[in-house]
Each structure stands twice: as C-alpha cells, then as structure tokens.
Design goal:
The complex is a heterodimer of chains A (338) and B (499). With 338 residues, chain A is mainly α. Chain A has a single domain, classed as ABC transporter involved in vitamin B12 uptake, BtuC, CATH 1.10.3470. Helix content of chain A is 75%, strand content 3%. Chain A has a two-stranded antiparallel ribbon. Chain B is of the alpha/beta class and 499 residues long. Chain B has two domains: 7-237, P-loop containing nucleotide triphosphate hydrolases (Rossmann fold), CATH 3.40.50; 256-492, Rossmann fold (3-Layer(aba) Sandwich), CATH 3.40.50. Chain B has 17 helices and 20 strands. In chain B, the strands form four sheets. In chain B, strands 6-7-8-3-9-10 form a six-stranded mixed sheet, with helices on both faces. In chain B, strands 16-17-18-13-19-20 form a six-stranded mixed sheet, with helices on both faces. In chain B, strands 2-1-4-5 form a four-stranded antiparallel sheet, with helices on one face. In chain B, a hairpin with a 2-residue loop joins β19 and β20 (473-479). In chain B, α14 (399-411) packs parallel to α15 (429-444). Chain B starts with 6 loop residues before the first strand and ends in a 7-residue tail after the last helix. The chains are: A mainly alpha (338), B alpha/beta (499).
Chain lengths: 338, 499
C-alpha cells in the first residue's frame, strides 16, 4: 500500500490545501518582484496569529452545525477591556491579564451557548443579535475613548514580536508561535480526547447522537463557550499587536473566521473538518489579501472582488483535489484488498 | 421461567396530547429469550421502544429492571442499564469511521486509545460474522454494514436488552439469516432480544415468544409453538386478511414495451437482457449487492451505461437524466423513502404533485392549489392513505402510508413503465396487500411494472416473470409457474448456475 492509501480523508484535505497554498505562493512569486522574503512571512504570521485563534473557535462551533457571528465583537471587547485593565493597573501580572482576557471571552461565549443550546434559538439569529449587542457593550464601556499603545506596558507590546526561533529566513515570533501551539493543542484534543468525539457526532447526525446517549445541548454549549474563550485570547493578541484599540476593533472578523474555516475544509453543515485545516485556511485568506495589495496589476477597487473570486477558486480546487485523492485512495485500497 | 424479568413494562400508558399511543401496556422480557413483537405500523411499537430506551417517559405505569422499578430519563440512562436499540434506518455518524461509530457512546477514559479501539472494533465486527474495514468512513457503508456497526456498538456496551426494530427489512436473505444467527447467539449468551419484524416467517424461525400489540394495547403473548401465522395476522389486524401472497393472473399483452439487450455499466453490472410486455409485471429478485437497483437507475437515466441497447416503445431509448426518463414516461420509485423518495417535512399534497407540477400551473404560471388538493384527495381515497387531510407533513405518517404517498406521486404522472424498488420494505401486512393491489391495478389498466424486491413471497405474488440477479449478472428469467422460493434462492446465492 502506498502513502496515499494510508492517509485519512482529513489528512488528504490538508494535503490538498498545502498544494493550493504552494500554487498561490508560486503564482505571486512569479508576478511580484522580491515577493518571497522574511518580511512577507512576518506580515502574514503576525496577522494569522490573531485570526487562527478565532478560526479555531469558529471551527469548534461549525463542527456542531452552528455558527458564531459574534466573535468579532468579542475580540473587540476583550481587547478593549484587557487594555483598560492594564492601563489602570500597569503592574498586573501578565498571566492574570491573559486570564482576564480569556474570562471575558468565555463569558460572552457562555451567553451565546445558553441561548443556542438551552433556549433553542438558532445560532445564526442568536449570534447576529449578540454581535450587535456585544459591540454596543463595547461602545458603552469605552465611553467613546480609545486605548493607546503608549499607555500599555512595554512587555505587552513587545511580546508578539519577540523572536523565538527561525528556520532560514523565516523568523517565528512569539505571537505566532503561541497561536500555533494553541492550534496544535486544540487539534490534539479534538482527535485524541473522548469527549471531543461528541462534537463531531452531534454535527454529523444529531438524532443518532441523541440515541447514542450524547448530551447534545452540553456539547453545543461547550463549543460556544470555547469559541468565546478563543475570541477572548485573540482579543489579547489583538491588543498586544496593535496597541491602539477603538470601538471598531475586530470588526468583520466573524466573516473572515468563517471564510478561514470553510476554506480550510471545515464542512459548513457540521460533522467534519479540522482546526489545522482552519489554520491553513486563515493563512491562505491572509496570503491572498496581502499579496493582492502588492500586485500592481490589480486596482484597489477590484481587490475585494478578486479576493472573493480567489477564495471561491481555492475552495473549489481544494474540494476537487481532495475528492480526487479520496477516490484514488478508495480504488487503491480496493485493489489492495483483492 | 422463575427468574426475574430483565425488563418489564407494568401498565405503561403514553399520551401525546389527546392521543393515546399506548394504553396499559404490559410486557416481560426474560434473559435468554428472543421476544418478537408483532403489530401493524402505528400499533404503538415505536412508542414502546422509545419508552424502553428512555427517550419517552411513560404517562403512567412502571418500568422494572431486574424486578426493581426504575426511571429511565434519557437514552443514556437506558444504556447504563444495558438497554440498547437498533433500527431499520441505522443511526450512524456519516462523517466518522467504523471504529469511532462503534465507540461513540463509550464514556470511560479521557484519552482515546486508537489502536486498542481498532482492535476491539475488529473483534466486535468479527464476533457478528462480518468483514468490514474498521477505518472506513460510515457515509460509504451499505445499509447492512451500517446495521452491523450499530450491533457492534450495542455489543461494546454489555447490552442486556437488545431491541431490534425491523433489523432485516433492508437486508438481503443471506444477510438477514446472518442477523438472525447473531440475534440467537446473543440470546443464548443471556441477552433479552426484542425482535420486531414484519416478516412473519422469520418471527417463527427465531422467536421463543411473541407478543401482539394493536392500537396501543397488548393483545396477546404466546409461546411461538402455541400460535401460527394466520392467528398472528388475525390478531395484528383485528380481522381476517385474505392470503396476500396469492398470485393474480397476468395482464400482459403481446406488445413489447421495453427491450433491454446486453446492457452493462462498467464495474457494476454486465450483460443484462430482458423484455417487458405492456401490462406485465417483471419482478427482479436477488440479494443485496446483486445490483438490481443499478439496472433500474440505468433505465432511469441516472447511471451511464457502457454497453448494450435499450428499445422502448419500438425506439432506441436514450436518457441521460431523470428528467428525460420522466418525460419518456418512466417512473422510478426509490427504495430509500427518506433519502431519495419523499420530502419528509413537506405536506402530502406537495409531495404528490412534485414530479408533475407542470400539470398544476394556471395560465399565469402560478400553482393551481385547488387542482393540487383535488388530486391529493383523489389518491388519499384510492390508495387508502390514512391521514385527516393532505396538508400534513409526510414525515408524520406511518411507513406504509409514506410508501403510498410515494406511489401516488409517481402514479400521478401516469407512467408507461413504473419501476418500484422494494415497494413494501418495512411496512405492515395490511399496507403490503394494499400496495400489491395498487401495482396490479396499475398493470391491469395497461401500465407496465418492474418490481425489485428482496422479499421472496412478494416476488412470487407479483411477478409474472422473475429475473434473478447475482453480483451484477443475470442468472435466469423464470416463468411464474416454474419459480419457487427455493429455485430463486438457489440462483441468487449462486448454488445453481445460470441456465
């Protein structure tokens, strides 16, 4: 049996995504002079450091056949609240500050989870409403003031850019590395922990999950709470990276996180997908966005349209590739069985 | 039997609003017995299962486990007590693989031990005598394989009461007998097996005792040796039923409607040749995996053929989509009501008009609702669809009535050729007789039918001629007079070669 027949369908998807990523990089490298360098990596990795966390949370929710549109507002609120705490108490322990951001996010996630899982309101309605509500909380809480980077301690604003290790010209900085570790941790939990299997079961066949004695409500609730937690942590990263926080912080992140997950092969109808996929999806979306800015051929006005079209193209290519690979695999394993 | 029953229902009643689904139900299940439950669809069997598995709570009455009254609030509580159920429509998780499906309900341990799980899954699959790759994703499994996964799941949890609800309805004869062997082996291990089946012959082969329920009430519980099929049917329907297995005279004419010559689809089936005369019923028999459905799908334009020719009404038939087949007057009634047949959430009348909606358009292109309702009521009367009105969602009807709605949908298009795939799978005796009568009335009125069925008595009751397939090959075409259950089985299992 070849390598292909031993890979799981999930692994095939990741493989297909990596191929698409490589194609995109090669394409822009041929179009833009001096495209491939350490700066490109830094730019994308520091932006993905935030989006990867949000997309990871979003993936957990989508796996259960739900969606969380409030994550952008949660990121904004968490960034602002964390920023104002550290402004007022500059000597606060960094870990406590991180914990605070996590708690703020989880709190909002719990509100979503209660409404979706226990009050049985469809998640698209709940989170559409809480997206606006949480944003209004932020406006009210901020009192129309902004957090500015000069009011933040140096350790916080320096943290995302601390070099951790490098591979050739690629410098892995603390923000991206931390985010990557979280993604890997969540991935391991999703694939190795027994309770995580319930997440897939509920999204795959809710009726059967009920029959199998799985408490679907608790599973959906947990997914939303974790999505809030991830958005809270992303808020912390957002604050550390940008320093200046206004009431529009994190605006539009909800759709970008959904795009990242779906581009990353997470089934929008629940039941299948991986956070590694969502992570690669976040990279792909960001790569396209960043590269288009530098591609002189495209005028500013067309950039959004091209980005949309490219995302569609990427999803289509990835879907076709992974379907082909799965087919090939089935054929091979059948031949092997004979 | 002096032991305490593993599970007992004592005076259980269940009301949904004003309707009483179960009234004063009493049932005792002992370790080591296969206890068959017989009853028409809508008799209250599903409600009873749901109470035994903790999904519904009884309105009154008590459940005993080992002689102790218990409250089963939720399927998890039932599973903790060793009560599990498997259904005709298997409950699997399409995105998970076989191993994950088997151990989805397991609760012990935080970390998954994949190698140990795979080993255990292989053992369980082997124990029920199946061969199945435990790494396969469930969405690609056949119904029989999905069911095996479900049985393995129940076995993984030290099941003490295993409820099997129409487990063989979707299986071929060979697979069904395998499943009965498993059920018997489980009972011999001390499990109480509750066996619900419309196939009376299998009830008499397998069960130690049989209980009949009708209209939510317990009618009788007897040792299998103390009863016989006719008595059982009479108790189930509350009236005498004519022998529905009787073959009616053929209404075939001399005109050939469809002629198939050496039809093949690469890697699926090959060299299929047959004729059907107008007014004839051709039955297709075979085991699951004989590829009968694929032949039907090829005629219906949903499967690309690789060789052979089809002549239809004297012309070469070239269909590449279901739309073209429908326009040519070919209807295909799927075996899978839920997936391919009906839109369960939509009203009965919408379903009936779905394939023929252009007949109900006003000059402005709007749907003529009154004509649609009139048609639906017409079929409700003709087919005896039991429903107060035609605006009810199809999903709320019993299986037999759903089947009738599906037939109505296709009969409404007035097809020349009606292909019906497993027309009576999982429906009760009374409804079965009605569906058979419908198909006969259709051919008597000049229609032509191709009936695919795994139910041998049904094949013999309907087929003027019987085409037997095995693993994608045509074994023989038998005249009704020459066919018997034994001869068909011999061909279908390959014990006898193609003539």
């Amino acid at each position: 049996m070849g390598l292909l027949s031993r890979l799981s369908p999930a692994a095939l998807r990741i493989l297909a995504l990596l191929v698409v990523l490589a194609i995109v990089i090669l394409f822009f490298a041929s179009q833009i002079e001096g495209y491939l360098n350490g700066r490109l990596f830094n730019r994308i990795s520091s932006s993905v450091a935030i989006m990867a966390l949000i997309a990871t949370g979003q993936t957990l929710v989508i796996l259960t056949r739900n969606i969380d549109l409030s994550v952008g507002s949660v990121v904004g609120f968490s960034a602002f609240a964390t920023g104002s705490i550290i402004t007022n108490h500059p000597d606060l322990n960094p870990l406590l500050l991180l914990l605070y951001a996590a708690l703020v996010g989880t709190g909002f996630g719990i509100i979503n989870g209660l409404l979706v899982a226990y009050a049985r309101v469809p998640s698209i309605i709940v989170t559409l409403a809480t997206m606006a509500l949480f944003r209004s909380f932020l406006v009210e809480y901020s009192n129309a003031k902004s957090i500015t980077s000069d009011s933040l301690p140096a350790w916080l604003t320096d943290f995302p850019n601390l070099p951790v290790f490098s591979i050739g010209a690629l410098e892995f900085r603390a923000g991206f590395t931390a985010s990557l570790l979280v993604v890997i941790l969540v991935h391991l939990c999703l694939t190795r922990l027994r309770p995580a299997r319930a997440l897939f079961a509920v999204g795959s066949n809710p009726e059967a999950a009920d029959m199998a004695g799985i408490d679907a409500k608790r599973v959906v609730f947990a997914a939303f709470a974790l999505s809030g937690l991830m958005a809270g942590l992303a808020g912390f990263m957002f604050l550390a990276r940008f320093g200046n926080i206004t009431v529009v912080a994190g605006l539009g992140f909800e759709l970008k996180s959904v795009a990242s997950s779906v581009v990353g092969g997470v089934n929008i109808f629940g039941g299948s997908g991986s956070v590694i996929g969502a992570f690669l999806g976040a990279i792909l979306v960001d790569l396209l966005e960043t590269s288009l800015v530098r591609w002189a051929v495209v005028s500013e006005f067309w950039r959004e349209a091209i980005l949309g079209a490219l995302i569609l193209l990427a999803v289509a290519t990835d879907t076709i590739l992974s379907r082909r690979l799965t087919k090939l695999r089935t054929k091979k394993s059948k031949e092997a069985a004979q | 039997m002096t032991l305490a029953p593993t599970l007992a229902l004592r005076g259980i009643s269940k009301n949904f609003g004003m309707t009483a689904a179960l009234t004063d139900m009493t049932l005792e299940l002992f370790p080591g017995e296969v206890h068959a439950i017989a009853g028409e669809n809508g008799a209250g069997k599903s409600t009873m299962i749901k109470i035994m598995t903790g999904i519904h709570q009884p309105s009154s009455g008590v459940l005993d486990v080992d002689g102790e009254p218990v409250v089963l609030n939720g399927s998890k509580a039932a599973r903790m007590r060793g009560i599990a159920a498997i259904y005709q429509e298997p409950m699997v998780f399409p995105d998970l693989d076989v191993t994950e499906n088997i151990f989805i309900s397991a609760t012990s341990g935080l970390f998954l031990n994949r190698p140990a799980m795979r080993r255990a899954a292989k053992e369980l699959i082997a124990r029920i005598g199946m061969t199945l790759d435990v790494d396969r994703i469930a969405s690609g499994l056949s119904l029989a394989e999905q069911q095996a996964v479900e049985i393995a799941r129940a076995l993984s949890q030290d099941v003490r009461v295993l409820i099997m609800d129409e487990p063989t309805a979707s299986l071929s004869a060979h697979e069904a007998s395998e499943l009965r062997r498993i059920a018997r082996a489980l009972a011999d291990d001390g499990v109480s097996v509750v066996y619900i089946s419309h196939r009376l012959e299998e009830v008499f082969q397998l069960a130690n005792r049989v209980s009949v329920i009708r209209d939510g009430k317990h009618i009788s519980t007897k040792l299998i040796t103390e009863t016989d099929p006719q008595t059982l049917i009479a108790e189930m329907v509350g009236r005498e039923v004519g022998n529905y297995f009787t073959k009616m005279p053929s209404t075939a004419t001399s005109e050939t409607l469809l002629s198939v010559q050496s039809l093949s689809v690469d890697g699926v089936f090959e060299d299929i040749s047959f004729d059907i005369k107008r007014g004839e019923i051709l039955a297709m028999a075979g085991l699951i995996g004989a590829r009968r459905t694929d032949v039907a799908l090829a005629l219906f334009g949903m499967l690309k053929t690789s060789a052979g020719a089809v002549t239809y009404k004297g012309q070469p038939l070239k269909v590449t989509s279901s739309r073209q087949a429908i326009d040519a007057g070919i209807a295909y009634v799927s075996e899978d009501r839920r997936k391919l047949g009906l839109a369960m959430a939509l009203p009965i009348r919408w379903n009936i008009s779905l394939a023929t909606l252009q007949k109900y358009l006003t000059p402005l292109g709007l749907i003529n609702t009154s004509a649609e309702i009139a048609t639906a009521w017409d079929y409700k009367k003709k087919l005896n669809i039991r429903t107060p009105n035609t605006d009810i969602a199809v999903g709320n009807l019993s299986g037999g009535n759903q089947q009738k709605v599906m037939l109505a949908k296709w009969l409404n298009m007035a097809p020349d050729l009606l292909i019906v795939d497993e027309p009576t799978r999982g429906i009760d005796v009374g409804a079965k007789a009605e569906v058979h009568a419908l198909i006969r009335a259709f051919t008597a009125a000049g229609g032509t039918a191709l009936v695919i069925s795994s139910d041998l008595p049904e094949v013999l009751a309907l087929g003027d001629r019987i085409l037997v397939m095995r693993e994608g090959r045509q074994m023989a075409i038998l005249n009704h007079a020459d066919a018997s259950q034994e001869s068909i089985m011999a061909l279908a299992t390959g014990q006898k070669d193609a003539a």
